[in-house]
């Protein structure tokens, strides 16, 4: 079954786990919640609001199944509904981890791309994660403000999960205060001694690099009725099946520890529309597969493996592929591979494939962040700590109001933008077929 099924059974119950702000601990609570549901033998799946690559990998480490991105901006409401429909075929429960604070979006309060707007559009209850360290009664006016504004958007905050709680007594103080003032109930709490997830400059480290913590000893329920608070999915979602044909196209995709940022929905999209997929590793120096008609260089962490990549045996075959005018799409870290050099986080400069006229340099601060939309309607996201210094004139490949316009050379498109393929199927098909 493809990703564009238009109706679903009503068995899957769903909720959105949101936070008061970034850093309140919602990812830790999300993983604890998934571990708890799995321990009770529930059939569950997970999603991530927004364009994040790393949080979904942690979800998958627990559930054993891909965690898909949902949002109202890049993925879109209809595609988000379709992804819920797909997962409803094989899961009873779905938890969606929000992005930033509940009302943080591209602009305004609860605006485009926010968790609140996603909950509104998908008609989902919200469980709000509050960092309760150092507070007791203060939780009431804090939660009250969130509840009041959520109600203006017709969004229900069904319960509160307190994070960084000092003791069971502390949790009871929080629960009693919420009950006394007719606020949503405290349904669970997490001890302040709970393990922390390791981070680096782009966010969390990958679960393949470190051991998955056991959060269950630190996570405590205050209700036996959590499941009843979840909402059943709607039925009769609109039909959004695109009429594109990728049959006969063999796409070679870079995939290894340096090239690891791939939306599962993009893989589903390619396979659902007939493309044959092959994988190669620049870290291992693997050549471009001879049967490839197009290449997708995905993003990731080239800066962590710059020394190995500097002498990769992949580059001669990739250079020949590009010079033969075959289609190549290079995104963020994948585009960094194609430049003259890469200066890593330690300040050391390494030669790269030297196919495009620029040098990439890592910096400690964020260089760019935000949703992007091409004139064709294709949507994506940009998030990186590196900058690009061009060494000669080049032709731009994307028409965007904000963000990286990229570099076009023959049938190669390279930029910092990660694209969401289902947002404009005909555009992606034309790129991979070399028709644009």
The CATH C-level name of the largest domain is Alpha Beta
Nearest-integer average pLDDT: 93
Shape: globular
CATH topology of the largest domain: Rossmann fold
Largest sheet: 9 strands, mixed
Instruction: Note the beta-strand portion.
Output: 25-35%
Low-confidence stretches: 1-9
**How many DSSP helices?**
11
Record field, number of beta strands: 26
Description of the molecule:
This protein has 11 helices and 26 strands. The chain has 436 residues and is α/β, with parallel strands linked by helices. The protein folds into 2 domains: 220 residues, P-loop containing nucleotide triphosphate hydrolases (Rossmann fold); 184 residues, Rossmann fold (3-Layer(aba) Sandwich). The longest helix is centred in the first third of the chain and has 14 residues. The protein starts with 12 loop residues before the first strand and ends with a helix. 49% of the residues are buried. The N terminus is likely disordered.
